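Board notes, transcribed. Complex of a protein with zinc ion.
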Amino acid sequence: MTPHKISILVRADVGRGAIELLVTGCLTAPTARILSAQIARARDLQPYEPILVDLTGVQHLEPAALEELRAAEAALTADSAVPLRFALPEVATPCPLSSVG
Ligand SMILES: [Zn+2]
């Protein structure tokens, strides 16, 4: 059992000019895979809409998660010129859920 949880809010309103994925919670390798699947799904649904993945609200960020996301980004942009951008938090913070004491 992992205490790490991710929450992904997808904003795909017509006329916004971009699909936004607002991410909060913990971004670890397993939750990054969940996020990658959501990004891929958004791209499948609206292939010509730019995607912005907003990670600035993430509370816990693991370097391994960024590797997962880079791999997903590479796969999704390999055959598409439609932008896929990530807004990253300035600092990686320790997990508020796994701290003891
Ligand atoms: Zn965590």
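The mean pLDDT is 89. The chain has two helices and four strands.
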